[in-house]
Structure prediction request, 486 residues.
Amino acid sequence: LNDNDQHDNHLAPALKNGVHLNGHSTLTKGPSLTNGSLKAEYLLDRNLRKAYPVVKGGKGNYLYLNDGRKVFDSTSGAAVSCLGHGNQRVIDAVAAQMQTGTPYLASTFWMSEVVEELCKELINGTDGKMARVYLTGSGSEAMEATVKMARQFFFENNKNTPRVNFIARQHSYHGNTIGALGISGHVARRAPYEPFLMDNVHHVSPCNAYRQRQEGESNAAFVAKKAAELEATFQELGPETVVGFICEPVVGAALGCVPSVPGYLEAMRDVCHKHGALFILDEVMSGMGRCGTLHAWQDEDIVPDLQTIGKGLGAGYQPIAAVLISQRVVNALLDGSGQFVHGQTYQGMPVQAAAALEVQKIMREGNMMKNVQVQGAYLEARLKALLGDHPNVGDIRGRGLFWGIEFVKDKKTKEPFDLKTGIAQKVSDTAISAPFNMVMYPGTGTADGVRGDHVILAPTYIVTREDIDHIAKTASDVVHHVFSEL
Ligand code: PLP
Prediction:
């Protein structure tokens, strides 16, 4: 351990004792570590050519690297680690569940109290507006289950139901499994697999005020256009053929923290319900407190028929996601076959539930939504003060502790950067390097220029005002540095 670590005596005991978490000492073929970065020779991950910095451990807002650096995690990973790293209460809850000897139980045979308690906690978190919880191991699986449950909702009543079409949105991301990707309007992620993807998904435009709203156009007028577009798509497909409409209330990875314009979700719900279709929200990224209310829809006085959650649910301590199901949908299953025709091995594991339950209790008991709102408002103010006038910053938008910065070549025309410039990646790579040592999540633009390169900031819910000052100042320093070198 180096000097840095000596000062940070809150590092996990395993690290203090010199345990090699990455276990490379046992490999016959050594890892190729250069400047603390590791290019994998055994693991096949996202980028086969790139060397990544190696993390030894984490505590609170910080990640501790092999090369002695301490990096501020201002994205909570992929908007996951909302309680920060190394939370002792969650670690203890997970350890205690392991000690019972049943971290896993086959859901075919068994129920456990911790799973039921988690589900009760989650339903209470909707003020009883949702009725049941279906647990999964990832956001993609939650979306798969949602697609199937939505279809089954109609199938229960009519085995020949004509409801076969979904409507989703362009520039959306709902997961990487075939069904979830089929819903997604993410051109690059779909491209290699296009022939396998459902052809009964139809995409309408997203709700992106910065890129689409006309100068001087009111929210109401903008929303009316979006509702008319959805209505037209229903009519084109035949309203009686539509299962449901799916969207993210605040678009995460696909657009960079773009919130719906006020009134949008309500208008879209109304179109769906007018035609008897389901209104479905994907809150895998925007939910579980990320936007300042436990669920983003709670800000809007609407309730979805089906909703997915993930990421902040288990805060990275266990892989867990879920579908929240309204009484209307539960009733269709209860009054029909009484079964959801689905199921996976690692679903509703007690150890997953123990982690998520503890995370949710910590959030509730610590009134963390208040901190998300207060620090989120401060982050917005600081980012706008430090970067709002930068000639290459087109838009700073978001909600709660979920903020996106979109870069443009020309602030007036909003012309995005040529994708070859790789501007978001440059900003992210610079941020994570010394002397900045902070994570900024990159998102590339699209070739059609509909969305520009952007970065996301999504810090933990435990951030203080001083942390926000640090995040905003560092983000500003990084952006100024990158554009001065262009
Ligand atoms: N839906 C949204 C909105 C997401 O942001 C993601 C992941 O980033 C997913 C679904 C898929 O979740 P997972 O990566 O856990 O499968």
